[in-house]
Design brief:
heterodimer; A: about 290 residues; alpha/beta; Rossmann fold; 8-stranded parallel β-sheet; about 45% helix; B: about 170 residues; 6-stranded parallel β-sheet; 6 strands; about 35% helix; about 15% strand
Chain lengths: ~290, ~170
């Protein structure tokens, strides 16, 4: 009996020691992570506007110079199928293609309807050819040179991500499909929208203005994309090399945010709503009118 | 024979089903109401809700046409004089953009019903008439749907200039 007690005592002491060591090691890590997260989230990110304004004042001739290539914003657009796709493409349709290029569209694996709508919009509004569509068979590495070619020619690309959950899928297997989906989506958004600026290029944008943007309007799965960008900021990818995150709440939400809206509200740099009442409840939200 | 002008009504339930609305528009009293207001044709997109075949050859003079889904309702919407729709934002926008009189029927059985918010907000602004399956008769009889405001056309420039202001300062 007493031997058994002594053994248990020894074991618990060992466990206690391990826990204390882990806490001591983890505390600074957690602290660093928390600080990183703080600077990666919108309210504490360095203000781009003021630096951008300064840049413009310092060098007003740059933009007017005829030889100068106009600054461009790499534009990544998440299309959440159905009504999400319809609203998002309505928003994208007004963008100036000389500024917003290349345009990368991320769609669900089997969301052919969204792909068709992207082609229709691009061909109607922008008169560009699709430079690259990642089909279900092809691998992303094989097509990478095509993307590079696309960047030079100001076109658009379409990328498919696996569904995080199929309709009627068991909740037991959902974590696995979700993980698979994330393992594709996260590297994709980093590859598409987090770009090191060209070294020594005379036309590259000021070091503090964003070079890319990520536009999202739901559903909840676009949380993964926003988190991927925030993680990239946390591990030290420079601010101007990660996309500015925009969330545009649906026209359908009058008094309450959608699930995607609630999840992304604290994470994104800019949050738009289409009904003024929402700005009272969510002070960071901006209302600039009906958008669709 | 067909000298009288055709006046058509479209009922659409969207991508799922809406039993209460479909059951309402199956009633003979509903058909009689439409006829009394001068409507000659009723088109029903009923989704997954049951629409019995015998309803197509009903006793009334109203010509009824029904189908479950179509990839696009644009042609049907363009061809009618009144749209009675579920309160999904996609259908609402499509109907308003075509400047058709629109009665929106709220599905009260849906959980956390934000559709009601949208229907009410747009009704408040005078763009449509919002009702429930039980008040649909009143909504049609009230004639309010004949004097609705024109819904403003979509302006993609609003978002474009907003994005410009944030990214190209």
């Amino acid at each position: 009996m007493s031997i058994c007690c002594a053994e248990a005592w020894g074991l618990s002491r060992l466990l206690l020691g391990a826990v204390i060591t882990a806490v001591i090691l983890a505390l600074p890590l957690a602290l660093v992570a928390a600080l990183r997260l703080r600077t990666a989230l919108p309210p504490h990110r360095p203000s781009k506007r003021t630096t951008a304004e300064r840049k413009k004042n310092d060098d007003p001739a740059r933009d007017e110079s005829p030889s100068s290539e106009p600054c461009n914003i790499t534009t990544t657009v998440f299309l959440g199928s159905g009504g999400h796709t319809a609203e998002m493409l309505q928003l994208v349709s007004g963008l100036n293609r000389d500024k917003y290029w290349p345009r990368h569209y991320i769609v669900g694996w089997d969301d052919d309807a969204s792909v068709t709508k992207v082609h229709a919009l691009e061909q109607q509004r922008f008169k560009e050819q699709c430079l690259f569509e990642q089909s279900k068979e092809s691998t992303s590495t094989k097509n990478r040179p095509l993307i590079a070619a696309g960047l030079a020619r100001r076109g658009y690309t379409i990328h498919r991500v696996p569904r995080s959950r199929h309709v009627h899928q068991s909740f037991l297997t959902t974590p696995f499909t979700l993980l698979y989906s994330l393992s594709v989506a996260i590297p994709m958004v980093i590859r598409l929208s987090c770009k090191p600026l060209k070294q020594g290029s005379p036309h590259s944008r000021s070091s503090s203005t964003p070079s890319s943007t990520l536009l999202m309007n739901g559903p909840g799965t676009c949380l993964a994309l926003a988190l991927a960008v925030i993680l990239a900021r946390m591990v030290g990818v420079p601010d101007n090399e990660t996309p500015d995150l925009f969330f545009i709440e649906s026209f359908a939400r009058v008094k309450t945010l959608s699930l995607a809206g609630k999840l992304l509200y604290p994470l994104v740099d800019h949050f738009l709503v289409q009904w003024p009442a929402l700005t009272q409840q969510y002070p960071r939200a901006e209302y600039i009118g009906m958008l669709v | 024979m067909d000298s009288a002008p055709h006046r058509r009504v479209l009922v659409t339930v969207g991508s799922t089903g809406f039993d209460q609305l479909v059951n309402t528009v199956l009633q003979h009293s509903f058909h009689a109401l439409l006829l009394s207001l001068g409507y000659t044709h009723l088109i029903v997109q009923h989704g997954s809700s049951n629409f019995p075949a015998e309803a197509l050859t009903g006793s009334s003079d109203l010509r009824i046409n029904a189908f479950s889904y179509k990839p696009s309702l644009l042609e049907d919407m363009q061809s009618v004089d009144l749209i009675i729709s579920h309160a999904g934002s996609g259908s609402i926008l499509e109907a308003l953009r075509l400047e058709k009189p629109l009665i929106v029927v709220i599905n009260e059985t849906l959980m956390n019903n934000h559709q009601q918010e949208l229907g009410d907000a747009l009704q408040e602004q005078g763009y449509l008439v919002s009702c429930t399956p039980t008040t649909l008769f009143d909504a049609i009889q009230s004639n309010k749907y004949r004097t609705l405001k024109r819904f403003p056309a979509a302006d993609p420039a609003i978002f474009a200039s907003y994005l410009d202001s944030k990214l190209f300062v």
